[in-house]
Automatic annotation (TrEMBL):
Gene Ontology MF term list: acyl binding; acyl carrier activity
A Pfam family matched in the record: PP-binding
Listed name of the protein: Acyl carrier protein
UniProt lineage: Bacteria, Pseudomonadati, Bacteroidota, Chitinophagia, Chitinophagales
Record-linked InterPro entries: ACP (IPR003231), ACP-like_sf (IPR036736), PP-bd_ACP (IPR009081)
Length: 85
């Protein structure tokens, strides 16, 4: 899966699961503020990621994720790690 596919897949489930406005999902936008995430929403986000991409997410992984670009990069890196195993 290339970066473009990761972004399209991610944005599709964010729009569906979190009723996000697709136009607001820009690489430099703040993930938490744009999606209005609370602690329970993060749990939902973890479940959606695991179901869509097939890897386990550790809650502490989100500490370094501020923007959508950070999020896309995280997914891309985890998918790359998964392929190497």
């Amino acid at each position: 899966m290339d970066k473009k596919e990761i972004i399209q897949t991610t944005n599709a489930f964010l729009v569906e699961e979190f009723e996000a406005d697709l136009a607001s999902l820009t690489p430099d936008a703040n993930l938490k503020a744009t999606l209005d995430l609370d602690s329970l929403d993060y749990i939902d986000l973890v479940v959606v990621i695991e179901n869509n991409f097939g890897f386990k997410v550790n809650p502490e992984d989100f500490q370094g994720i501020a923007t959508f670009q950070d999020f896309y990069d995280y997914v891309a890196n985890r998918l790359k790690q998964k392929e190497l195993v």
